[in-house]
From TrEMBL:
Signal peptide positions on this chain: none
SMART domains: TGc
Stated name of the protein: DUF3488 and transglutaminase-like domain-containing protein
Upper classification of the organism: Bacteria, Bacillati, Actinomycetota, Actinomycetes, Streptosporangiales
Compositionally biased region (Basic and acidic residues): 665-675
Organism: Actinomadura napierensis
Amino acid sequence: MTVMAAVATLACSIGLYPLFATGRWFWTGIGAVLAAVCGGLLSRRLRLPAPLDPLCGLAVLLLYLTVAYASGAAWLGFIPSPGALTHLADLAGDGWHAANRYAAPVPLVSGIGLLAAAGIGVVAVLVDLLAVRLRRAAPAGLPLLAMYSVPAAVRQDGVGWLAFGVGALGFLGLLMADAREQVGGWGRAVTVHRHGGELPLAGAAAPSGQRLRVDGGRRAASGRRIAVGSVAIAVLLPMAIPGVHPRGMFGMGGGKGKGTQTVTTPDPLVSLKRELTRLDDSVVLTYHTDDPDDPDYLRLYALDRFDGDRWTYSRLRSSSADRLSDRTLPPPPGLSIAPVHEVTTRVKVSGEVRDMTFLPVPYAPSQVSIKGDWRVHSRSMMIYSLSDSAGGRSYTVKSLRAEPTAADLSAATGYPADVVSHYTDVPKNIPPQVRTLAQNVTAGAATARAQAVKLQRWFTLTGGFTYDLSTPAPQHGNDLVDFLLRSKRGYCEQFAASMALMARILGIPSRVAMGYTSGTQTRPGTWVVRSRDAHAWPELYFEGSGWVRFEPTPSGAAGQGTAVTPGYTEPTVNGGGRQDDGALPTPTATSRSDGSTATPQAAPHRNDSGPQGTPAEHDSGNGGAKAAPWIAGGVLVLLLLAVPMVLRVLTRRRRWAALTTPPRPRPESGDRRPDSGGPPARARGGVHEGDGGGGAAHAAWREMRADALDHGLEWRPSDSPRAAARRLGELLELDPVGSEALGRIARAEELARYSRTRVADPLERLRAEVRTVRASFAASVGRRTRWRARVFPPSSISQARSALRGAGSRTADLADRLNDLPNRLRRR
């Protein structure tokens, strides 16, 4: 078991390969596993208590790490000294900083190697404790699975099937070794004859031509049931989980029907950080454009939802009507006044790009020519596919590039109601400091465009922000507050997300776009986009100009190297040579001019109560929609919890109803059935008496048994009815009424089982006796047990378990018959 625990840990550690640029980490991992195993062996050799097993393993692991990474500062080269411990702590800190700075696969610097070896060693300690010392091999799979969760969370590609298969084989080997040791503890296996004939006496040799072997029939049947159930769960359960099979069951959906499908992709912002920190800075795509000006950014995603922690895009529902099919795409929302010109872009994506299911295109695309099943989301103009990838493909995009002027943006006066409701939604848990900051930064700005320009200048010039790729990606709302108010260090994700949020606070519809900058020009009209050109930027909505790009991220050598600030976002200069940023006397709040638009001048005075502010009205009106999933989930949980109680009630009713249903037609009086020598069955009091009244007694006995199990009472199947009644009566000290009722039910069951001439008790009397006994059981136990018997009766769980066991047995029997069918056909 010790050896197999170490082998299983090493096999599962192979799944970490996507995280590292080289394979040297595996050899340090082998040393860490051996150290952890030696610590466990030492603890068991000294017969130390089980809680000391992991301590010994961790102590030997520390010795190994000291020798490998801090031997120069250790006593005698291997004993951890204060200096050695300090060196290890500093090295681990450097490794953590490097892991956050670089995207996977990371270079194997000393700090990262130390973290990898320590992590593998800790997993080895846990596996050794669970599988070897505590004899719990199955739970040992949890720490092994944890090693696969790390690359799955960090890398978009996850872990290859071969690496996962090696780890699975290691875990199965651990389970087999555990089973073999447990069975071997009973001694040699007993052998029996499998093919008929007399069993030989003890010590006698097997008859000639016959073999003796272990009777594995029961174990084989159990194995088949487990295998069938596991395969059924593995195949059927994922089909019931939304998003696991976007192309439908067995891939047969394909999006070719009239139904809709949900589009799922990895977190775009995680992909952004990985692209920005790649060491090779590989080429993502090249393109040729006829745009006379510098080309615009290539957009992949439009993130329109902010949940208080991160920006994501709303769930996309795709149908066959969204296919491109070389058709003209829907017009871009809101673009009606600003001048536009058509741009043709021919793009070639590198063949090394994998899983790019969204196309990078200039905004706003009007026609896309590409092979495959590609679709468009009309609201955001994102181009995506449910089954294809852009890697290695060439395609042509015709797009409408808007050229708004500062005057066009300043003249925008209102927003459509659907834009306001969707793109100004701000969670209520946004800290008040951020709301106050947004209003202070834009103080004195009279128009939405002036507010946006002030926000952009604050991020790029006056706010004291620094572009830093080593900053961890924001995970919580507190990270946003820290970026805006304290650290002021980050990369394009923080800048774009913060400006979009502050714009929404001011009442300006906004979203976060993600894709690539225009890249670097190699010759006239030809541009190259590399992984370092990955970028995120905010898009703000202005009626007449549509969605307009802003650039709050610092550019050039001190920022995003290829980012470009649009000309319409620069402060204008009036005739007197003074910058005109729209500073006017603070306007009074105004309401919407009609039912479909709202004036942006009221935006600076928006607050949470907002009797006139449209975004505040949307927040209050949207509370029900946000609470709906929680309410539905709560109702579903309550329904699931009610299943055992409902099953118990239905079982009780069905059990008694089966005795009171009208009997089926019988032969006329005096007639005899061919297979019976007695008179036809009679019915008395509405109860079938074909069995002499035994059915009512058996039903009452089963009901009493279920009530005993529900109230937590021990039920011994080996007891006779009289012994069971006597034991329950003594155990619970029942009152005379309950004791007599219990005795009458036991007597009825005893007569139904053993008496040849049964005297049937009336059905209603037995039902009354069962109710009396149930009340006595409830009065003899505590309140908690009483409530459990009502709400979560254990007898229902036992009934469901028996039903599943029976279904599994029937399935296994059917499989055996199908397997034996060729043999039977040959015998015929």
